[in-house]
Amino acid sequence: MATTGTPTNITQGSKTKGGIGESTLRPDGTLKVTGEFAYSSDMWHEDMLWGHTLRSTVAHAEIRSIDVSEALAMSGVYAVLTHDDLPTEVKNYGLEIQDTPVLAHGKVRHHGEPVAIVAADHPETARRAAAKIKIDYAELPLITDEASATAPDAILVHENRDDHHIGHVPHPNIVHRQPIVRGDADEAAKRADVIVRGEYTFGMQDQAFLGPESGLAVPSEDGGVELYVATQWLHSDLRQIAPVLGLPEEKVRMTLSGVGGAFGGREDLSMQIHACLLALRTGKPVKIVYNRFESFFGHVHRHPAKLYYEHGATKDGKLTHMKCKIVLDGGAYASASPAVVGNASSLSVGPYVIEDVDIEAIALYSNNPPCGAMRGFGAVQACFAYEAQMDKLAAKLDMDPVEFRQLNAMEQGTLLPTGQPVDSPAPVAELLRRVKARPLPPEQQWLAAGEQADVRALPGGLSNTTHGEGVVRGVGYAVGIKNVGFSEGFDDYSTARVRMEVVGGEPVATVHTAMAEVGQGGVTVHAQIARTELGVTQVTIQPADTQVGSAGSTSASRQTYVTGGAVKNTCENVREKVLEIGRRKFGSYHPAWATAELLLEGGKVVTDGGEVLADLVDVLEDEAVDLELEWRHRPTEAFDLRTGQGNGHVQYSFAAHRAVVEVDTELGLVKVVELAVAQDVGKALNPLSVVGQIQGGTTQGLGVAVMEEIIVDPKTAKVRNPSFTDYLIPTILDTPTIPVDVLELADDHAPYGLRGIGEAPTLSSTPAVLAAIRNATGLELNRTPVRPEHLTGT
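Structure tokens predicted for Molybdopterin cofactor-binding domain-containing protein:
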């Protein structure tokens, strides 16, 4: 029982450790680096079957017939399903527009589209059975670019569109269009002393997560199904799966399994419905695991883009106007294309003050692979183009490229082209100053060990292509702006359930959310928040599932902000309930119970002056406090479909990079020596994780700068390189030193003043590398990734 005497003061040593601001280690970290972590592909169930998907071998064709008889006759095959076997009239799904068939019906619209699914007692049996399915295709003309998509007589990728975007697009093969008009760009152009124009091409990038799509569906006794799956958004999956199965949502119970990376590629469904259909048809558990080839066809990619920009500036370096058109290829199905268009258009001006703009962004339907969410979400493509324009303007004006950017940098209070004010710190100029002020790495580092060249430090690396001949250094800069959270009026909320009780003689908090832990470290941060708000050391994080309210998607740099905000809010309410219990039990012992600001710290109830009033064990005894609450950030609003005006975003994140490269100008090989970055994070809840996120995002930007691109044959719309043999991603040998400078300028509107951080470094790393290569070679380089032939002209 608590003492009735004079309260003592809490000491530094008795304060709760592992709260926000500390670099608490990840609970899954050791398991992952030692190979002991259980990913979704590791799941196993007694008597389970294996599922396999048969995919189209052509990009656009009518399906004349499907013959599954030979496949069904194979020993060990339990089920073969096509579109005709779907149990309800709901046969399509989609994040916003339900235009994606569960299994192709009547026609296929892209290479690799699912046509049939098989369940068998062995994965190889399932693959062999799928290979025996006979499909008669009648190929159709292809839509592969803007010209073929928007021609007056163009074939329609979707003949009978009825979605809400169709009323404001100029052609049915345009998924969504978002103009933004502010001021008078034509009139402002007359004031410009210098005008630069550019046409830019951004290649199709893959998320390249290492854990392939996988899951296990287990039929339930009540006629429902339990699905264990690697995903980014459990409740969005549930909303799309249940109608196709003809089940109420409460009979589709979903649990997050171990996720081996996501980066946007798991927002859309892949094998979820297929596994459930096969499990319900056979009455047995069904596991589906894609191999790498299948994975390239099993998820969306980053939109390739054509970007057309015009900027003007006065002779003293002030920007006068900007015009741009951004054409995103969304591929065969809508996925997240409408939201990507909104981001690309609203962030197309970059982190700069330009009062007069004329902007248009569109996403196309085509017969290319479907594209959707990927880290950076439309802002990446725009940043590549507007940063190239900044370098062109600076060169024309004979100005330093960093000083030119700083002269035009936005700051708190700046009005964006949408008319929305930036109402939190926007330290664009300071971020640029910091990366420029860093000492440059030594030149010719390959000679550091003596006269013998260390080829690992040279372009070409261990291929030993050069010992320094023809190698030129280049330095480049870039800065970007990324929104945080869902935008354009979306009801962006999260849910957290928190329980506080005494277990084993000490206070314990249990946190339950549906947040998908995809590697970002959310489970670590949630425990830190609970320790901070509830003053307990022991925090249990429950597995994410659909038995608690939605947490939204692990995307848009939103989870620490939104689900972290939900955990904080619920913890605060739990704390108040605990204090109410304490006041009821002990309020008569000391006036501070009624008059002081009370906190929970180190397992005790304390005043804000550090006086201990009671132990939490004595306050709670056999009682438990259990609350589940929703939390929302400030509302946003849709952009006007004619002018683009509106407060569409809730928060912005900024990062700047300086890239240092060594280029072998004779062979066209690039070695990125250093990628320094400065980023404002608002508040670093876990500094070690913050640095890791920034370095990871920077590395993905490096990849699309110099190596990553899905190659689609323009004549057949088939993917040429669906493997990690031919689709290259940076390895540890390709990844340079990435020094990180973290600013913490609080956003007063956000929990703890934090900013979402995961995406911003992916924006500016790519154009910084391109700027450095241009600096080394003198070439214009208006596409990404840069390949050797672009540097050598061969």
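Residues 322 and 357 are 5 Å apart (CA to CA).
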